[in-house]
Automatic annotation (TrEMBL):
Organism: Roseiterribacter gracilis
UniProt name for this protein: Chain-length determining protein
Coiled coil segments of this chain: 168-237, 299-326
Residue stretches spanning the membrane: 20-40, 402-422, 462-486
InterPro entries: Bact_polysacc_biosynth/exp, GNVR, XrtA_polysacc_chain
Residue span(s) of domain Tyrosine-protein kinase G-rich: 346-421
Key words, A-Z: Coiled coil, Membrane, Transmembrane, Transmembrane helix
Superkingdom field: Bacteria
Keyword Coiled coil: yes
Length: 490
């Protein structure tokens, strides 16, 4: 603890010896800094608030039907394009900024870049945003914001029409391109289909001719099998039917009963009750019938049906042969071109995509026409200036009190840093203890007696305090607004 106390006392004694250097450093830093702060020009800010909203009736009606022209999207687009180089060049010509650059193109481009950084466009709430600009001239700041509002309003109408014209031109060019592609695709598809129509599926998604031919052959085989089965059943029935029956009344009844039995057998099985009853009736009539034998009409009828069945079978065999021949022909074509289906799918896929895009572009064009008509006959965007820009009388920058205080603190810090560095570089001995620390014998020391030098030291202290007081007075002068007076003087 004693060592710390000694070190502190040593630093304080060194600081006192070099107090004039510290005062000079503080005055030098503060004077330079305050001169710089005083020379900074005032910055005046002008601000405008603008409200933009879409029509509350027309926009919902057009949503989904016309191209989307939502107001928020247009405002966002305007915020991006308002500070474009052409717009800022127009702004320079509309204000006194033109006098600052003259005909120097380099200076104009530099000013445009500076304006892009200095002009602030911020969104405050839904559909409400502010345009802010600062300049040493309050009138020029107001004029710049006014010019931006004018450009915004003109651009809101002109840019929308330009964008609509560009959209129309783009859609027209794209439609022409897709129309040519669609015609080429249709031609390739039609030629390919005409070449391989037998093995390709139908246009409506139905089966191909090859599939139809195969199905036809299968159906003919099934029908032929059924016809043969019917022919065999008729032949068996013919065998069980006598060619002649006994004459007379009983014979006539017998023939009728036998015809009825033949008809029932064609409809039912032999175990059916009606068939059993009819068979018993035939047997009873055959035992009781008498007279001469006559031709059995049932036999003749069954025989005619058998001839009919044979004719149907012959016709079916002929049709089956022709169907198999057609199937084999188409099947040979399919085997000769195994990749036709895949190639047609690729052609059909390309055609479908091109046609879909073409139809989509047609829809877009009609929607754009509706949107253009809506923009021409209705005010879709409502534009209103809530707070117009005004000339500011109080500067918003620089913050001189803060800067002057910062300069004062910097001067004090510079003085302290200078004292600390000089104390560290000082190799002199402040007292006898410093000498004894070298390990050398010290005989003694001489004390300084009071004399006229003491009064000189008192005057020096007064001057030192006065210097500090003067520094604070100058600080108070600048805080109280002396910077404006200083700028007027210079």
């Amino acid at each position: 603890m004693e060592n710390v106390k000694v070190l502190v006392l040593k630093q304080m004694r060194g600081a006192w010896r070099r107090r004039w250097l510290a005062i000079a450093a503080a005055w030098g830093v503060c004077a330079l800094g305050w001169l710089v702060v005083a020379s900074l020009p005032n910055q005046y800010e002008s601000q405008a608030r603008v409200y933009v909203d879409a029509d509350a009736v027309l926009t919902p009606l057009l949503r989904g039907l016309a191209a989307d022209t939502n107001a928020l999207n247009q405002v966002d687009l305007m915020q991006r394009t308002l500070l474009s180089a052409p717009n800022l060049d127009k702004l320079i010509r509309m204000t006194d900024l033109e006098q600052r650059v003259g005909t120097d193109q380099g200076a104009r481009e530099a000013l445009i870049q500076k304006l892009q950084q200095d002009i602030k466009i911020k969104s405050q709430a839904k559909n409400l945003f502010t345009i802010t600009y600062r300049d040493p001239s309050p009138r020029l700041a107001r004029d710049v914001v006014n010019a931006l509002l004018t450009i915004f309003q003109e651009g809101n109408v002109g840019a929308g029409r330009t964008a609509m014209d560009n959209a129309q031109k783009f859609l027209k060019d794209q439609l022409g391109t897709y129309e040519r592609q669609l015609r080429d695709a249709e031609k390739r598809r039609a030629e390919f289909r005409a070449k391989y129509i037998d093995i390709l599926p139908a246009e409506n998604g139905g089966a191909s001719r090859l599939e139809t031919a195969r199905a036809n052959v299968e159906n003919l085989n099934l029908e032929l099998s059924e016809a043969i089965a019917r022919r065999d059943a008729i032949a068996a029935q013919l065998k069980s039917t006598p060619a002649s029956v006994s004459g007379g009344v009983g014979g006539g009844l017998y023939a009728q009963a036998q015809q009825k039995l033949a008809e029932l057998r064609m409809r039912f099985t032999d175990q059916h009750p009606d068939v059993i009853a009819a068979r018993r009736q035939v047997e009873e009539l055959s035992r009781g019938a008498g007279g001469t034998s006559v031709g059995n009409p049932t036999y003749d009828m069954i025989k005619l049906r058998l001839v009919d069945a044979e004719s149907q079978i012959a016709a079916m065999k002929n049709r089956l042969a022709q169907g198999e021949k057609e199937r084999d022909r188409i099947d040979s074509i399919a085997r000769a071109a195994p990749g036709v289906a895949a190639e047609y799918q690729n052609l059909d896929r390309d055609y479908t995509v091109i046609r879909k895009n073409y139809e989509e572009l047609l829809t877009r064009r009609e929607a754009t026409n509706i949107a253009e008509a809506a923009d021409a006959k209705a005010d879709k965007i409502q534009y209103r200036v809530i707070d117009p820009p005004e000339i500011a009388f109080i500067p918003v920058a620089p913050k001189r009190t803060l800067l002057v205080t910062g300069v004062l603190l910097a001067g004090i810090a510079a003085a302290g840093a200078l004292i600390f560095v000089l104390n560290q570089l000082d190799r002199s001995f402040a007292n006898l203890d410093d000498l004894r620390s070298l390990g050398l014998p010290v005989i003694g020391g001489l004390s300084k007696l009071p004399n006229t030098g003491a009064r000189a030291m008192d005057r020096a202290g007064v001057i030192f305090v006065a210097s500090i007081g003067a520094l604070l007075v100058v600080y108070a002068f600048f805080v109280a607004g002396g910077a404006a007076l200083f700028r007027k003087v210079i």
